[in-house]
Amino acid sequence: MSDVAEPQETVELKIGEESYSLPVITGSYQEKGIDISKLLKTTGHVTFDEGFKNTGSTTSSITFIDGIKGILEHRGYPIEQLADHSSFTEVMFLLLNTELPSATELSHFEQKLKDNATPPVGLRAILDSLPREAHPMSMIGTIISALPGFYPESVDSWKNEDIRWNTIYRLLGHMPAMVAYVYRRRQGLAYIDPDPSLGYVENFLHMMYGEVNAEVAEALDTLLVLHADHEQNCSAATVRMAGSSHVNLFAAIAAGNSALWGPLHGGANQKVIEMLEAIREDGGDTQKYIDKAKDKEDPFRLMGFGHRVYKNFDPRAKVIKMYTDKVLDALNIDDPVLDIAKGLEKEAIADPYFSSRKLFPNVDFYSGIIYRALGIPVPMFTVMFALGRLPGWIAQWKELRESGQAIGRPRQIYTGYTKRDYTPMEDRS
Ligand code: SDX
Q1: Three-state DSSP class for 73?
Q2: Global pTM?
Q3: Structural domain contains residue 114
Q4: Pocket perturbation via mutation, ligand 1, pick of 238, 305, 381, 389 by most ligand atoms within 8 A of CB
């Protein structure tokens, strides 16, 4: 990456008779951003962009997405190559350290995760105090939020290099057990301790089910790679916003976990399966549900379809769709909702409503079918998304803190009452 200052490209903004020159930031792939950092001070105007559909909140060197071409790269490596050749722990290292690890670096990194595989036993008591039927995203959020209580030095996670990395290793190392604890609590099963002889994903399956199926482990490792990061999505942006207040890493991640829970974001994978099941129970009439999704009077949306950035196929959905066939074949599972999903995809893509709005399957459309084939209960799907996204959230938090960015504090356009005097109770109607 060039460190020579490029001549400053600018654009002109005309307000009334005044003309203002605004600098332009150029990205690695020549994407352009108009820098409005001084707009309010120089023009007295703020911008307005509900949902930040046109607003870049940061520069970042972690992940690149081209929504038109359907490209996703982590530190320059295409997601398809990482899914084929890498592993979840190697992608964690890449996201956090910019480069792929040597064999020694990977071994050292994985050992750090193993050293932190066992969360504080107090988390079990916290889970045991929650209703067994509590939503798994509520459960995992509760115990993530509890971690600073067990690691008081993490409250200033950025204090020094050792505390910073110990906090990162603890969270990455603990998460598989924490997710498995949530599963076991909901199932009313005894907790299973980590087995240090196993790899990261194998250990997770061991703590979930007490056994490890090699094909399931391989498929799950790839699924987690595909979920690892996705630049400034809703939950990562939430982690950055919370992190910008200099709150500890655990609390910033808990904030991101809450954002992921929403059905328009990570909660969609649970909604997709519920939608496919409803279609199956309704006789498999996919066209009826496509018509519902198109009907503006009907709040129903085709869950797992559409994306804020991808206006082409989500590259992750392509890989997951291929893996779905592979996993179901390997496990000798015939899941009727897979055929419904494929039929729905085919009909929707051919329908002008979807094609004109560039609505394609996203990462959530097929992932739930694999999770279900791997024996993961539907309400746990979004927790699985959180397990996969955790290294990305941490990498985004780390990059934010390294950059020394100011606390996030968006402006607004006020549209309420103008100044008025207090109305005494006796004068109110
Ligand atoms: C994730 O940001 C990320 O990177 C997220 C993510 C990640 O890895 O972090 O990729 C993970 O969150 C994937 C998305 C999971 N959500 C869903 O699958 C829920 C269903 N999808 C939609 O709710 C929607 O597509 C969003 C929320 C994903 C994107 O919404 P946008 O960008 O705000 O688009 P929009 O709501 O403005 O929709 C544009 C048009 C509208 O119609 P018109 O007003 O133009 O007539 O498309 C329609 C929408 O009504 N539309 C849909 C639709 N999605 C958009 N119509 C029917 N079904 C859908 N799913």
Answers
A1: strand
A2: 0.95
A3: yes
A4: 305
